[in-house]
Amino acid sequence: MTQRVQGVVSRAQGEPVSLETILIPDPGPGDVVVTIQACGVCHTDLHYREGGINDEYPFLLGHEAAGVVEAVGEGVDRVAVGDFVVLNWRAVCGVCRACKRGRPWYCFDTHNASKKMTLEDGTELSPALGIGAFAEKTLVHEGQCTKVDPTADPAVVGLLGCGVMAGLGAAMNTGNVGRGDSVAVIGCGGVGCGAIAGARLAGATTIIAVDLDPGKLAWATDLGATDTIDASSGDVVEAIQALTDTFGADVVIDAVGRPETWLQAFHARDLAGTVVLVGVPTPDMKLELPLIDVFSHGGALKSSWYGDCLPERDFPMLVDLYQQGRLPLDKFVTERIGLADVEAAFATMKKGTVLRSVVVL
């Protein structure tokens, strides 16, 4: 039976979002209806509203979410009614060439729900990252649901659904940070602070936070940075080298995604060190670098998509670490808001005064 719920919709590029009635169909084969308990406000949602992803309006925004399975469709066997789940946008197919080679975090054919959610007039909605969780309920594929400890705070663990996981994974999975390593993170918003928390969890001994904003550097310190660099006060590369016995860091993570910050990361790493790009550049950005520099520095130049995570492997582990007090995920939640406050949260996000606003239902 079709359900009517309230959800946050973006109807046109750059226009304020609106709270509207959404129709949730009965789940089809492989589908799951999830009652949303909390959903973080991510920059990606703002990119959808601004037309930075595609022009398939109207969008049902929201994707960093946790909730409880309410109903399941035919053939669903990964989750059951009543399960507490964190949603993810990487529901791996298991049969593409990446999955068959044992690298499912590179899956080329991830799953989404078989049916469309709509507005009351029948207009089909495009759910953000295939999820659409700024709503009382949403419809997703079973593979987009990862069961975790049901006693965890939904507002906290739901953030693993995107930005925080991207940062944690950039350090732990893509960068392969290990005990005793030195790590520098350029850009200390939600993703960058996630990388700092991941580097600390992995056992890095020198963790350098780089940003222009003193407030973000304070967040980074609270999450594990051992040193901070104000990027506006001097040469970032020289400052990182000075903190690493002139050698540069073993791993440098660019959480900004601009040519100038990537070049800083490239030159600020140790010989044969690793550069990880997790900040998302725009299509118009270009990079110019002498090829001999790439050859002579050696090492690895990597991009990190979703922190190269495998949700069913990583989410339960990270939630358990949070529950044990070993991973301070709760520090990412700056404020808790309602569905009607999403547009205001976008404005707050632009000011850079929050790590995450979280919609709590």
UniProtKB/TrEMBL annotation:
The lineage of its organism: Bacteria, Bacillati, Actinomycetota, Actinomycetes, Mycobacteriales. This is S-(Hydroxymethyl)mycothiol dehydrogenase. Belongs to the zinc-containing alcohol dehydrogenase family. Residues 14-361 form the Enoyl reductase (ER) domain. Its EC number is 1.1.1.306. Keywords: Metal-binding, Oxidoreductase, Zinc. It is an enzyme of class 1 (oxidoreductase). It comes from Antrihabitans stalagmiti. GO terms for molecular function: mycothiol-dependent formaldehyde dehydrogenase activity; zinc ion binding. Its cofactor is Zn(2+). SMART domains: PKS_ER. It holds the Pfam family ADH_N.
